[in-house]
Design a protein that fits this description.
Elements lengths: L2 H8 L3 H10 L2 H21 L7 H20 L4 H18 L2 H21 L7 H24 L6 H23 L7 H28 L2 H17 L6 H18 L5 H5 L3 H8 L9 H30 L4 H10 L13
């Protein structure tokens, strides 16, 4: 064999080299290092400790790593979307324009809210479901620091509604693929999604009507409950997270261990992760109060989620501890690991 032929035969195609690099642990380790450093910068800026630019740098790093992670988790191109998020973030920070900074903050909020839901894995029991809800809210909490790190100029209610709308739309688009499309819903899934949509619409509509047109007596009564909770407990749980987001996520990961349509229920988990990503956007609320509000919503929401899970098991399974144990052992619907692509 000639020397030229030997060199030709030893060459590895570019596509194979890229695939081998993507299959190695190097990208995952690099992602973890960048995410931890970005989170540390955001924590230092929140305390605050260090130079003023730590918040902007931390937001850029977290927005980039979270965008890449969401793309990788959903079978996309992490390097492309990570680079795109980095370019958008750099343009927003260097321009110092309120419109661009607010847009970057909204995008970071929505991406983080969706990633927090996609980051979960199926749960065979309630404790595992509670763990997944906690992990999702921790991810969303990091995104909350990154969101305010861009220092957006916002109108609070509008900012929260836009972030929630983008997150819900993104989650439904992805869940349509993960949940085998609309035909994968089934009768039970259709009922659950309809109930979740009705609760979401009712919660948002009621809050807006109460804020705009509610009678002074009713508003004063509700505000007195909020005031009492803030004065005695340190915070008041966010209704949409408590009533819909956390219960839907807990029940959704429980259902995913048994049926693929559980992804459709998990989509409403953004009603918990999205409010968490915007929890620090209100300058009138301290970091401690915002954190307590999320924690209270998590605790009460998990109680509601436990009731949903028990109701589902009561309607679909047999009674008795032994039967529940057998049902849990049989809940082995496979899904990729937490750090592997879902698609």
């Amino acid at each position: 064999m000639s020397r030229a032929a030997s060199r030709t035969s030893s060459r590895v195609p570019l596509e194979q080299r890229i695939g081998d690099f993507g299959a190695s642990r190097v990208p995952l380790v690099a992602w973890w290092v960048a995410a931890v450093l970005g989170t540390a910068a955001l924590v230092a800026a929140t305390v605050p400790v260090g130079p003023d630019w730590l918040g902007s740098i931390g937001s850029l790093v977290v927005a980039t790593t979270f965008s890449a992670a969401l793309a990788a988790r959903t079978g996309g191109r992490p390097f492309v979307f990570g680079a795109l998020a980095l370019v958008i973030g750099v343009l927003a920070v260097t321009s110092d324009q309120d419109v661009l900074l607010t847009g970057a903050a909204v995008c970071t909020s929505a991406v983080t809210a969706v990633l927090a839901v996609m980051f979960t894995v199926p749960a065979t029991g309630f404790l595992a479901a509670a763990r997944e809800c906690l992990i999702a809210l921790v991810v969303a909490g990091v995104g909350a620091m990154a969101t305010v790190g861009f220092e957006p100029a916002i109108q609070k209610e509008r900012f929260e509604y836009v972030g929630l709308g983008f997150a819900l739309l993104g989650a439904l688009v992805l869940v349509h693929r993960l949940g085998a499309g609309f035909h994968g819903l089934g009768r039970r899934g259709l009922v659950v999604v309809a109930i979740g949509g009705a609760i979401l619409a009712a919660t948002l509509l009621y809050a807006e009507l109460l804020r705009r047109y509610g009678s002074s007596g009713l508003v004063d009564e509700l505000l007195s409950w909020v005031t009492w909770s803030r004065e005695n407990l340190g915070a008041f749980p966010r209704p949409i997270e408590t009533v819909l987001g956390v219960p839907a996520l807990a029940y959704g990961v429980h259902m995913r261990a048994r049926r693929r349509q559980g992804w459709w229920v998990c989509a409403f988990g953004v009603a918990a992760t999205s409010p968490t990503t915007t929890a620090l956007a209100n300058p009138a609320v301290s970091v401690t109060e915002a954190t307590l509000s999320v924690v209270y919503g998590l605790v009460i929401g998990l109680l509601l989620g436990w009731l949903l899970i028990r109701l589902d098991l009561a309607l679909t399974g047999n009674g008795g501890r032994r039967s529940r144990g057998a049902e849990r052992a049989a809940a082995v619907r496979p899904e990729p690991s937490r750090f592997a692509p879902l698609l």
